[in-house]
Write a structure and sequence with these properties.
The protein is mainly alpha-helical. Helices cover about 55% and strands about 5% of the residues. The strands form 2 sheets. It has a 3-stranded parallel beta sheet. The relative contact order is 0.14. The structure holds adenosine-5'-diphosphate and tryptophan.
Amino acid sequence: MKRILSGVQPSGKPHVGNYLGAIRQHIEMQKDYECFLFIADLHALTTVRDAELMRKQSYELAVAYLALGLDPKKTAFFKQSSLPEHAELCWIFDCITKMPFIERAHAWKDAQAKGKKEVTVGLFNYPVLMSADILLYQPDLVPVGKDQKQHVEIARDIATNFNQTFGETFKLPDAFIKEDVAVVPGTDGQKMSKSYGNTIDLFGTDAELKKQVMGIITDSTPLEEPKNPETCNVFKLYKLFADKKEIQELAAKYKAGGMGYGDAKKTLLSKLMEYFADARTKYNELLPKKDYVYGILEDGAKRAKKVAANTLETAKKKIGYI
Ligand code: ADP
Ligand code: TRP
């Protein structure tokens, strides 16, 4: 069975973009692959600087995955910070990776372009830690969003460099990117992202969800007039969740005129409520069950450790540490 590995940062509340772009693939792939999935809390320290928030966001992300269908028997699910192997292999890679190579990575280039003098060494080094995250598990595929493709390529280059320097150790993984949901639009039509404040959150209260959906930006075509569904943010989101017949029906209402955007938003809201109903119920049931959820993460960490420690030991032998 082929192996996949992925990580998700606990950097905020999970939203519809995260679900379609990442979470859903992770859950669907459980049936065909041996899976490793971690909460990337080492990476999150580049932005989260509050202990309670770090704990809360990591925990809620774990609950979100479980509520959405992660099966802890099939997937080794764990917190990155539980395994020191990630940071240790990162240091090894740091010592064989040239600065200019990482200077080309987009996280650093974006930060520089914004004139950020405050960029930390951790953010600069992010692609090297991500390479360690990946290569420790010798995965075949790394399911990620399009924005992470470059990081998987960096991991391949670092693996090649290590293998050439010290001898064959790491398998070269491929990024796995689902093209059709590469970019989910947010409530303002830009890419949905925590950093743009345009999200529809998966596990907000009913009132919060309603507020986000009713706040989707639309044009000012009057109620009576026909409207173009293809350019409407409400319709673009509806298409991602409705079936063919439902999509055709709503498109027909747009084109006929006489339907206001408020009605389209209500249709979208009830679709989202229906689509995520089970997950939302499960989320609220699991949220107070801390021992159960932390137990799953600890068990996952034990299973992950077997693989990670083994790879690290091989690398250390090749280097001459042991
Ligand atoms: P955000 O932009 O909200 O901070 P992250 O960068 O934490 O989201 O992304 C977590 C995962 O979700 C990544 O794999 C990313 O590619 C995916 N993702 C985030 N936003 C979207 C979106 N709007 N459409 C598709 N995938 C997305
Ligand atoms: N950088 C990824 C993101 O922001 C999260 C991540 C960290 C990751 N390490 C990883 C993803 C290893 C895949 C594999 O979305």
